[in-house]
């Protein structure tokens, strides 16, 4: 799985559709302060399912929508699409039937976020799992925010362990365990109800 293009539309300072082509080797993004370099990295995290507005340097998730400038009105939606080369067929099951995979996230004011994978509506959880299983994703240690190194130095061992787990691609297992535990609890409640009914019938 190799990311090869990121397209931003109405996302933060990128009001017009803008493509970032990620070629083989090293891709550098250079520019003056405030030109949007960090916004590009945030777009990448956002399309992979980031749900914390603070991680997007905003107060609410709708803050990622272009807020307007002196010469341009604000937009009503923001969209980021990530084009992935899947010729090595390493994408997890359910996303692995094509050589190319395109994941799109769109947020519309007062409506919220929606995801698509190769044109089909997809749940946020499935997109998050797709990237978590591939050892990347919104919390990937490969994406280093400003100030993150000093945060790491001061972090407690438990938080540091989480970084190793992300890198090992096992963080999706925690989510699955949590979901399995909820299902188990539901099944136990149902069994208790069945016992009650059986007792009444006896
Ligand atoms: P530096 O080199 O200082 O870290 P940078 O190139 O990383 O800067 P960013 O922090 O990515 O720049 O971009 C900041 C710019 O994005 C600011 O000009 C800010 O006004 C603009 N911006 C952020 N959110 C929005 C939004 N919702 N609508 C319009 N512009 C926005």
TrEMBL record:
The chain holds residues 1 to 202 of 1151 of the full protein. ATP binds at residues 32-39. It is found in: Cytoplasm. Belongs to the SMC family. This is Chromosome partition protein Smc. Contains large globular domains required for ATP hydrolysis at each terminus and a third globular domain forming a flexible hinge near the middle of the molecule. These domains are separated by coiled-coil structures. Homodimer. It comes from Lentibacter algarum. Signal peptide: none annotated. Required for chromosome condensation and partitioning.
